[in-house]
Every structure is written in structure tokens, then in C-alpha cells.
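thought: user wants a sequence for this fold. calling inverse folding tool.
action: design(structure=
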């Protein structure tokens, strides 16, 4: 039998000016980074879409899920059009990069690059995959941040106002945090540790959500008093996608499939499991019943708290952090959050507790106290990154690192308070931030003309205007009854 002709080696296959497998490309790193990106994307769609659509009252299921779905799509277009380069491009000012599109083929097929510090021990990092991979990986991080903010605003925000809020906040707030901490800005140059977004994503979304909730206003008193999930099992499905998707969240942060990746994935799951168990035990001790929704909250706080330091701490430290993330946010939410002074702002899903508190906890305690020098050096090769418990004769360096972590947290908090307030006040000039009282009574059918479940009339709905209380509603209801009898 004649032998088949030898194929052209893949390394020499080209398309125009581009080599399909250039010398710098590591297929394993590229494959993992795309998988990690997809895992984070699945956290968003369908993860948070399912979670939001099921953890709220039935009348808000469609609106809540749609807020998340819209944010995912809107962020992607803004990201490739201008926001990626504002976050990871050439420096404009110490907190902001120059805006520009990330759509050029030559730019996207070239080797990805990351900023260099202005000190001699760390040169620019060049991951072994195309720039397109980095653009998409960072997009899903940006998208989930906006989707987390939505959790504070469910059940009353005007959808048109939300459509405007997403690109404005991405441009004026998220890109500032991303550039400052990751893209070569002043906090990056200063040596602040934010392994995978405890500050850039979670602290910023928790603070921004709380501030936006203040400006939008509360839900109806009836909704605030009773807001049961419409489907607890679907809530668990969405939570499960969040948990496993976090392997890509923290596993993708090293920008390579290396030993830190494995450590980060294991630590993420250990901390999360510990936090879930601690939160559940707290519920049993103080409320005599284990709560499924409480367990989901504990799961989320564990995922968030480990994010700023996932690949930089040892396994025992992940358990310690899990104990803290299952108890400290529990206390702020279940005790302080029910005090009148803290209950003034209607943060629907308690994002300020699950993300802002837990994110700050991970950034300050996890990175500031528990970061292990060897792991830190494997991640960034920066010799003075160490937690306080590893001072070992370098107490001044460890104390300085802790101070940097605290200052960075304060910067993110302050910027988001100011910028989120400005954005909301500007939007308010053009459209109401909150739905009308009439629409709030009805929910999804008034906001979108759609309902989540066909529990009445086999899916038939009234005209949007007719669902409001009044004579027209009664007249139309009687007409429907008459039609049924005649048919």
C-alpha cells in the first residue's frame, strides 16, 4: 500500500502575513487561557442570568435575568471598541490608559503583552498566546463586574437607565481600577497585590452597587419585606456554575498553565467549601435552621475572599480565610445589615456584604497577612511581596505591603463612591433611575411585556397597560371571561 504524502508541518502553515503557529505560541497556555475565559463566561451566561432570574420574586424573574444578559453583551462591544486599551493600553495618566479599539487583526494575532514595572527587577511580561486571547479573558472579568452591580439594583431600576449606566460605569470606573492595579497604573507600580480581582472586580462592584442602590431608591415596601426566591433549585444551579466557573477566574490569573494555576484552583475550592460550611453553621447556631440561600451566600463570600490571593497563599491559609469569609460577611449582613442605620440603602442581594466586605477581607488579610513569599515570587518574581506572618526579618517590607493593600482598598472605595454617584446623577437628568410606582407593582409584564412562568391563562397575558389596577383592568378581565364562555 502506498504511503500517504507527508503533510506540510503546521509550523509552516501561513495565511497571508501571519504564521498560524509562531515560535512564541504555547498551545497549552493558549488552550488553558481560552478555557479559563469560557469558564468565567459561563459564570456570567448562564450562571448569573439563572441565579438572578431565580433568586428574586416571580414578578421580577425576567427583568433580573435580562439586566445580567444585557450587561454581558454591552460590555463586550464597549470593551473591544475602547475600554480594553483604557484598562491595559498605553498610559494616558497614572490611573487611566489611552482609549482605542482592540479590533485590528495584526494587533490581535500578535503576542500578548502586559505592562512592566518601573523598577529593574521585573520587565514586561509576554504571555505565550495571542493578544486576542488576553482581550477576551479580560472582557469576561469586566462583564461579570457589571453583572454583580446589577445584584444590588434588582426589583426597581429603570431598564433604560441600566442600559446607559453599563457603558458609562465600565468606561469611567472599571477601566480606572483595572489600569491602576493591573494595567501599569500607579497601584501596579507601587506593588499592590490583587491576584485575580478582589479589588478591581469585587470591592468595586460591591461599593458601586451599594452607591447606585442609594441613588436609584428602594423597592416597594412590600417587596423589601417579602422577597422570596421563585425557584430555589435553579438558584442552586446558577450558584453551581459560579463555583466551578471560578476555576477559570482564579486559575486564569497567572496567564499560563503553570504550578501557580494548580495551587490557585485548589485554594479556591478549599476556601469556598470552608466558607459555605461556616456560614451554614452560623445560621444553625443563631437561627436554628440551615438556609440554602445562606449557604449560597457563604459560597460566594468564600469565592470572593480567595480571589485577591488565590495563588499566593498555602492550603492551610485558604482554610483560615474561608473561616473568616464565612463569618465576617455573615455578621455584617445578618447582624449589622438589619440595623436601621445600615438598612437605609436597599441593596437587593446584599452585594456590599458578599463582594465589597469579602473582597476587602481577601485583599487585606489574604494578601496583606497570608501571602507566602515563594508563591508570590513564582507569580510575579517581586522579592518583597510577602504577608505580615512571613516577615522573617523583613518586618518593614511586610508592614509596607499591608499598608499598600489598605491604601489600594481605600482608593477603590473612594473612586467608586464619587464616580458612581456622578454617573447616576447624570443619567437622572435624562431618564428616571427608578421605575414608576405602577410598574413596580406589576413587575416584568409592565417592564418588558413578558412573564417568566405561564401560570395564568396558559401563557396569555393582558395588554401591558391593562395590568394596572383600575376599571380598564376589570373590564378586560370580564371580556376575557365572556369570550371563554362563548367559545
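)
observation: tool returned 487 residues.
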Amino acid at each position: 500500500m502506498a504511503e500517504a504524502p507527508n503533510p506540510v508541518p503546521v509550523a509552516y502553515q501561513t495565511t497571508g502575513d501571519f504564521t498560524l503557529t509562531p515560535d512564541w505560541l504555547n498551545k497549552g497556555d493558549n488552550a488553558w487561557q481560552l478555557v479559563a475565559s469560557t469558564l468565567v463566561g459561563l459564570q456570567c451566561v448562564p450562571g448569573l442570568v439563572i441565579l438572578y432570574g431565580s433568586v428574586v420574586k416571580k414578578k421580577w424573574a425576567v427583568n433580573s435575568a435580562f439586566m445580567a444578559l444585557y450587561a454581558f453583551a454591552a460590555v463586550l462591544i464597549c470593551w473591544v471598541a475602547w475600554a480594553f486599551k483604557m484598562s491595559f493600553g498605553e498610559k494616558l495618566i497614572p490611573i487611566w490608559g489611552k482609549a482605542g479599539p482592540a479590533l485590528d487583526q495584526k494587533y490581535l494575532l500578535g503576542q500578548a503583552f502586559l505592562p512592566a514595572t518601573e523598577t529593574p527587577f521585573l520587565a514586561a511580561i509576554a504571555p505565550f498566546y495571542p493578544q486576542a486571547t488576553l482581550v477576551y479573558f479580560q472582557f469576561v472579568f469586566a462583564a461579570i463586574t457589571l453583572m454583580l452591580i446589577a445584584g444590588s439594583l434588582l426589583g426597581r431600576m429603570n431598564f433604560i437607565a441600566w442600559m446607559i449606566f453599563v457603558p458609562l460605569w465600565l468606561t469611567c470606573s472599571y477601566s480606572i481600577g483595572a489600569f491602576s492595579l493591573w494595567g501599569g497604573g500607579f497601584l501596579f507600580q507601587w506593588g499592590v497585590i490583587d491576584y485575580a480581582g478582589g479589588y478591581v472586580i469585587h470591592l468595586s462592584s460591591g461599593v458601586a452597587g451599594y452607591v447606585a442602590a442609594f441613588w436609584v431608591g428602594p423597592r416597594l415596601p412590600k417587596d423589601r419585606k417579602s422577597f422570596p426566591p421563585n425557584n430555589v433549585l435553579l438558584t442552586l444551579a446558577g450558584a453551581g456554575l459560579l463555583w466551578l466557573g471560578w476555576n477559570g477566574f482564579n486559575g486564569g490569573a497567572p496567564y499560563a498553565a503553570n504550578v501557580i494555576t494548580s495551587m490557585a484552583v485548589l485554594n479556591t475550592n478549599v476556601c469556598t467549601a470552608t466558607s459555605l460550611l461556616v456560614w451554614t453553621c452560623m445560621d444553625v447556631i443563631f437561627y436554628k435552621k440551615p438556609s440554602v440561600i445562606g449557604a449560597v451566600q457563604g459560597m460566594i463570600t468564600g469565592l470572593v475572599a480567595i480571589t485577591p490571593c488565590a495563588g499566593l497563599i498555602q492550603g492551610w491559609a485558604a482554610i483560615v480565610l474561608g473561616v473568616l469569609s464565612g463569618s465576617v460577611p455573615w455578621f455584617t449582613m445578618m447582624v449589622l445589615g438589619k440595623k436601621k442605620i445600615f438598612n437605609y440603602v436597599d441593596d437587593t442581594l446584599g452585594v456590599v456584604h458578599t463582594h465589597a466586605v469579602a473582597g476587602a477581607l481577601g485583599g487585606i488579610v489574604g494578601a496583606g497577612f497570608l501571602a507566602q513569599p515563594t508563591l508570590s515570587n513564582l507569580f510575579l518574581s517581586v522579592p518583597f511581596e510577602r504577608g505580615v506572618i512571613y516577615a522573617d526579618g523583613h518586618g518593614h517590607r511586610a508592614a509596607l505591603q499591608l499598608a499598600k493593600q489598605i491604601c489600594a482598598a481605600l482608593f477603590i472605595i473612594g473612586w467608586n463612591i464619587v464616580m458612581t454617584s456622578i454617573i447616576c446623577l447624570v443619567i437622572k437628568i435624562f431618564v428616571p433611575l427608578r421605575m414608576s410606582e405602577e410598574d413596580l407593582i406589576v413587575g416584568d409584564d409592565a417592564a418588558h411585556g413578558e412573564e417568566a412562568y405561564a401560570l395564568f391563562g396558559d401563557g396569555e397575558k393582558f395588554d401591558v397597560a391593562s395590568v394596572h389596577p383600575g376599571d380598564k383592568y376589570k373590564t378586560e378581565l370580564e371580556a376575557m371571561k365572556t369570550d371563554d364562555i362563548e367559545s
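thought: summarizing for user.
answer: Here is the designed sequence. The chain has one domain: 27-437.
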